[in-house]
Design goal:
The structure is a single chain. By secondary structure, this protein is of the alpha/beta class. Helices cover 31% and strands 18% of the residues. It has 25 helices and 30 strands. The protein has a 7-stranded mixed barrel. A 6-stranded mixed β-sheet has the order 6-5-2-3-4-21, with helices on one face. A 5-stranded parallel β-sheet has the order 16-15-14-17-18, covered by helices on one side. Helix 1 crosses helix 2. The radius of gyration is 25 Å and the shape is globular. 56% of the residues are buried. The structure holds alpha-methylisocitric acid and iron/sulfur cluster. Iron/sulfur cluster (SF4) binds next to loops.
């Protein structure tokens, strides 16, 4: 069957090559190879045309999967139409240690796990229990196959690009499309070629490649683009290292990231229990890399080519508060002065889907073992969350956990943990403090809820060395560490024994996941618990203009999904829209008011928290808009950031620009996502304006809409707004949401 699957893709790719009469990049091979059968293939304009795709697989984690499955239930389908899996990884709090934390999570989140497990069984999804590991790591070890296309309700789904599978992060409503058997729509991405030359030195990690690139491209620099890696340097990076690079491509706004499949990839498949698949896949290796002509003349085929000389890279620290503020080792000494972060490190964290592989943990253990031989001790707390149970079993067997624990590190559950604010932080410094992590995000308050925690991102190696140094202004390439005897030891020495490519040997741990379908299963939604609640469909829109809208808030500066719908303690309500809506925009900065999360209630003229004002409007039947700056909705795929405003009566978000996943989430949930034709128009919106959106009866692809600002002094201003809605997306808007549209199709059949 697998052979046939690849044969079909190969045929499609060959016919596209003939039709276009040109060589194809790897991204094009995968996208055109997954083209929705019923549509005629055409050469789609990048960053403009929408293409309809048929992904091979879907994965959902427990924080986003709840809403996706609740929406799927409303479509009336019996089965998921493609192989899919659910992963319980986001809800486990790092506190006492692996076993205890897992036990507490199972008790605390029982209602959620019961719901997910029963829904998985009823609809036919694989269910990965709490403790099995982080979604992307499990995908890489068990499901990812080169040349395939997958969607995941998590922004770091591109992780599987490390072994050549195109993974794209989406909101839950997109997941519902493919679970219901519809094609999935994507704006044809631009393709940025990243040419890697040289070789990674022992002291430099794959993470440093992406930390460097995130600094270079910026947090929205690769929006609507796939980063396709090629060149001789790829050889020196392991599959999990490549996955690290693809994973954190999300922080540049990229739609996805990809490496082509090579000998190392096939070996990885073999070592992770997929020998027979590896043999088949290898036969189609031409489909798993770009055509040679692309590599000969990359400028002709990629929208942009970026060259990185791996041998010139230095260890990086990116932060604080944004992943694209990059510092190289030679600049570490300036970090405290430049960023106002305390030089002393209060905690060092290893883990997350970016960097919790077997190779990563082996490197941490090797450095700590080298350190212990030199009588060096950790100077800050060290917490480790392994990526999967399979990795944990290997690390236990090889004594890595013991080394880490003997050095004073604490091993937590195989889960996201502090990466998503699930951290009961011990000895938490109340005020300003610095932490370093091997994670991919460092937005304010993300890890421990403290706005004064300055978080820096680094490779596991750099995190470990700096935890030994206890300071961020320490250059791992040049500086010396000092042990209790007063001996000076070159930090560089501790890199000894680190392999550039380490492969785990993994067998699928069947005991921690459930497979099997049973339509008779009753979906468990506990009436007593407030964790999961059935969804009511959003109301349809009338084909008329929207008038008399109040300004809910004009946000200023960065407004990520963490600002719109915080994680941490709010994760408990990811299955209950009404409850979680009480966190709406709590982290947002208001252009007109100094307290974050506050806004003016135009009915009472008083300032109050944004969710309270929104709820008051909802009760009174008042509709509103949100105004925002650039890259609104950066970060997570959580569609709660779109559903909450919709639920509270927000009709539109007027922004300078949007992050890709969030823009789609708004469209899917029936919130109008509009951008200012002239960015300066953002300034024209005043606090007490009443706003009309006009042109809606003629709403069509590429049409313009206008907004009328009714200022307090009776003056009026008209602004032109742009949008990227396709015909289908406009249909979703009229129906009230994409799910309503699907249900209607179902009824009509
Ligand atoms: C994240 O890293 O921010 C998350 C938590 O994994 C999110 C998904 C979520 O909010 O549940 C993501 O990246 O999509
Ligand atoms: Fe989990 Fe963090 Fe990865 Fe998101 S980025 S999936 S929270 S480990």
């Amino acid at each position: 069957m697998l052979d046939q699957h690849y044969q079909t893709r190969q045929k499609k790719i060959n016919s596209v090559r003939t039709k276009f009469n040109r060589a194809l990049t790897l991204t094009e091979k995968i996208l055109y190879g997954h083209f929705y059968e019923e549509n005629p293939i055409d050469e789609f304009k990048r960053n403009k045309d929408y293409i309809m795709l048929q992904p091979d697989r879907l994965a959902m984690q427990d924080a986003t999967g709840q809403m996706a499955l609740l929406q799927f239930m409303n479509t009336g389908r019996k089965n998921v139409a493609l192989p899919a899996s659910v992963h319980c990884d986001h809800l486990i709090i790092a506190d006492q240690g692996r076993e205890d934390d897992l036990k507490s999570a199972k008790q605390e989140n029982q209602a959620v796990y019961d719901f997910l497990q029963s829904a998985s069984r009823k609809f036919g999804l694989d269910f990965w229990k709490p403790g099995s590991g982080i979604i992307h790591q499990i995908i890489l070890e068990n499901y990812a196959l080169p040349g395939n296309l997958m969607l995941g309700t998590d922004s770091h789904t591109p992780n599987c690009g490390g072994i050549g599978m195109l993974g794209i992060g989406v909101g839950g409503a997109d997941a519902v499309d493919v679970m219901a058997g519809f094609s999935w729509e994507l704006k044809m991405p631009k393709i940025i070629g990243i040419y890697l030359e040289g070789e990674l030195p022992q002291s430099i990690a794959a993470k440093d490649v992406i930390l460097y690139l995130t600094g270079l491209l910026g947090a929205k620099g690769a929006t609507n683009a796939v980063l396709e890696y090629f060149g001789p340097g790829c050889k020196s990076i392991s599959p999990t290292g490549r996955a690290t690079i693809c994973n954190m491509g999300a922080e540049t706004g990229a739609t996805s990231s990809l490496f082509s499949a090579d000998e190392t990839t096939f070996k990885f498949l073999q070592k992770t229990g997929r020998e027979s698949a590896a043999k088949i896949v290898e036969k189609y290796k031409d489909c798993l890399k770009a055509d040679q002509k692309v590599y000969n003349k990359p400028d002709q085929y990629y929208d942009r080519v970026v060259k990185v000389d791996l041998s010139q890279l230095e260890p990086h620290l990116n932060g604080p508060f944004t992943p694209d503020a990059a510092y190289q080792a030679s600049q570490f000494q300036n970090i405290p002065e430049k960023t106002q972060a305390p030089a002393e490190i209060s905690a060092a964290l290893i883990g997350s889907c970016t960097n919790a592989s077997y190779q990563d943990l082996k490197k941490v253990a090797t450095i700590l073992e080298n350190a212990s031989e030199q009588s060096l001790k950790l100077k800050s707390d060290l917490i480790v969350n392994p990526g999967s149970e399979a990795i944990s079993q290997l690390c236990k067997k090889e004594g890595f956990f013991k080394i880490i624990e003997q050095a004073g590190g604490k091993i937590m559950a195989n889960a996201c943990g502090p990466c998503i604010g699930q951290w009961n932080r011990k000895n938490s410094p109340a005020g300003k403090n610095t932490i370093i992590t091997s994670f991919n995000r460092n937005f304010r308050k993300r890890n421990d809820g403290n706005p004064e925690t300055y978080a820096f991102l680094a490779s596991p190696e750099t995190v470990t060395i700096l935890a030994l140094a206890g300071r961020v202004d320490f250059n791992p390439l040049q500086d010396n560490l000092e042990n209790e005897k007063g001996d000076k030891i070159k930090a560089l020495q501790l890199f000894e024994g680190l392999d550039s490519i380490t492969m785990p040997v993994i067998e699928t741990p069947t005991s921690i996941f459930g497979r099997g379908k049973d339509h008779q299963t009753e979906i468990k939604i506990s009436e007593k618990s407030q964790r999961v609640a059935r969804l009511k469909p959003f109301p349809a829109h009338q084909k008329e203009n929207l008038t008399g809208l109040k300004l809910l808030v004009k946000t200023e500066g960065k407004c990520t999904t963490d600002h719109i719908s915080q994680a941490g303690r709010w994760l408990q309500f990811r299955g209950n829209l009404d409850k979680i809506s009480d966190n709406l925009l709590l982290g947002a900065n208001n252009y007109f008011y100094s307290k974050a999360g506050y806004t003016k209630n135009h009915l009472t003229q008083k300032y109050d928290s944004i969710p309270k004002v929104a709820r008051h409007y909802k009760k009174q039947g008042v509709h509103s808009v949100i105004v925002a700056e650039d890259n609104y909705g950066e970060g997570s795929s959580r569609e709660h950031a779109a559903m909450e405003p919709r639920y509270m009566g927000v009709e539109s978000v007027l922004a300078k620009s949007f992050a890709r996943i969030h823009e789609t989430n708004l469209k899917k949930q029936g919130v109008l996502a509009l951008t200012f034709q002239s960015q300066k128009d953002y300034e024209k919106i005043r606090e007490n304006d009443t706003i009309d959106i006009i042109g809606l009866p003629e709403f069509a692809p590429e049409s313009e809409l206008q907004i009328i600002l009714h200022h307090e002094d009776d003056a009026r201003e008209i602004l032109t707004m742009e949008h990227t809605y396709s015909k289908l997306q406009i249909e979703w808007f009229w129906q009230g949401s994409a799910i309503n549209w699907i249900s209607k199709q179902e009824e009509e059949q």
